[in-house]
Amino acid sequence: MKNIIKIAPSILSADFSKLREEIKSLEDGGADMIHIDVMDGHFVPNLTFGPPVIKKIRKCTKLPFDVHLMISPVEKYIKDYSNAGADIITLHPEATDNLSRSIDIIKSFSKKAGVSLKPDTPNELIKDVIKKIDVILIMSVNPGFSGQTFMPKVLSKIKFFRHKIQTEKLNIDIEIDGGIDFKTGPMAIEAGANILVSGTTIFNNKNQISENIKNLRKY
Ligand code: DX5
Ligand code: ZN
Questions:
Q1: Are 81 and 67 in contact (CB under 8 A)?
Q2: Are the CB atoms for 115 and 63 separated by under 8 Å?
Q3: Partner of 100 at 20 to 30 A CA spacing, among 19, 90, 158, 216?
Q4: Residues within 6 Å of ligand 1 by CB
């Protein structure tokens, strides 16, 4: 059966001086959710949004907020991002000393839980928690910046998890994040991804946001 493809534009590539309009264009353009890259200048070498910003933009759209936490230690901030309006909270295993407990905390706020794997993070790191997560976010670049080049080696990660999800009948989305364009998007979908994150490709030509979303989805 073919997976339904969802598009999660990353507002890391938006114009921060007019986030409301940018988010509105994404909603009008058919985005399925808004991907929000939270960076702390420590887990990754860049700084972005804190809970107050997310709380403000929460009022701009009804689309789900897919919050990708690249912060360490992450656990003590889960509550703040949950209260700010996250619907999906994704963290990296390296950012917590107890992955299982951190996932339970996300779930205790009735949010969807995601775990993200960097290109070199072993798949085995999530084997003990896979049954209780909703999303596996596979990074196809080293996290920190938009506009990087897709690493094809992560396609094997996608295939590994798609196979596992199918054989074990798990209800988990596979999301791919980093360097997704009209060439790499189809490669990721072919391998088994069903949510595409995209910053640069979607915001590249601002007059064409809806075309870009449609073209990413159409494969
Ligand atoms: C990178 C972020 C990505 C990034 C994607 O650390 O997690 O979500 O914004 O941007 P592009 O699509 O430009 O690679
Ligand atoms: Zn991201």
A1: yes
A2: no
A3: 158
A4: 10, 12-13, 35, 37, 68, 141, 143-144, 146-148, 177-180, 197-201
pTM over 0.90: yes
Here the tokens at position 143 are 């996290």
Q: Of 204, 155, 218, 150, which is closest to residue 25 (Cα–Cα)?
A: 204
Residue 1 has pLDDT above 70, yes or no: no
For each of the domains in the chain, give its residue range(s) and CATH number, in order of start: 6-218 (3.20.20.70)
Give 118-140 pLDDT, tens digit per residue. Answer: 999 999 999 999 999 999 999 99
What pLDDT digit, counting tens, does each position of 64-79 carry?
999 999 999 999 999 9
Strands 112-117 and 135-139: parallel
